[in-house]
Specification:
This protein is of the alpha/beta class. The chain is built from five helices and eight strands; from the N terminus they run ααββαββαββαββ.
């Protein structure tokens, strides 16, 4: 009889240990939310991220996937380093693309910045450190990423970008944030 109880107890304890280990391996929704907030914070705090860089991320379990395009190679490595140390992050898949260096693209970036952020109805987006409209230029092709307040601002930004000489194509991926 004692042997049966002992075997039963050992089985229960081993099942509980296996269940605990599985729970520990799978992050809870609460810890997943914390990881998402910390990744966002770390990426926003990077010192050399500017209006010509676009970074995004996905969090799946303990894996963080970094996405986007950056002008400087150091920004890519800094983003990975910043996210790697977050508690609960087991792996960082850095898919950030480093845009090729090009004097022509650099000139286009400056013109686009002035055309978009210097236009009276879009000047409000120039306030603050993190600009909401990201200008990505790769080989004369422009992609606008980020958020604006309304459809009119999205359209104006696209029209202003299309008006810059030397651009081959403009893709307007700006998202309109629903007003409260």
């Amino acid at each position: 009889m004692n042997r049966r109880i002992w075997v039963f107890t050992v089985c229960l304890l081993s099942l509980a240990a296996v269940g605990f280990a599985q729970d520990r391996d799978q992050p809870s929704a609460k810890s997943q939310g914390r990881i998402i907030r910390e990744v966002r914070h770390e990426l926003l705090m990077l010192p050399y991220v500017g209006v010509f860089d676009n970074m995004a991320y996905k969090v799946e379990g303990g894996t963080v996937t970094l996405l986007g395009e950056v002008v400087r190679p150091v920004t890519k490595s800094d983003a990975e380093s910043a996210v790697k140390h977050i508690e609960g992050v087991e792996k960082v898949d850095n898919q950030i693309e480093i845009l090729p260096p090009s004097p022509m693209d650099d000139r286009l970036r400056i013109r686009l910045f002035h055309e978009i952020y210097g236009y009276p109805s879009l000047e409000k987006y120039a306030l603050g450190v993190q600009k909401p409209i990201r200008i990505i230029v790769k080989n004369g092709r422009v992609t606008l990423e980020g958020v604006v307040d309304n459809e009119a601002d999205k359209n104006v930004a696209g029209i202003r970008a299309n008006g810059v000489p030397g651009i081959f194509q403009v893709t307007n991926n700006l998202q309109v944030v629903a007003s409260k």
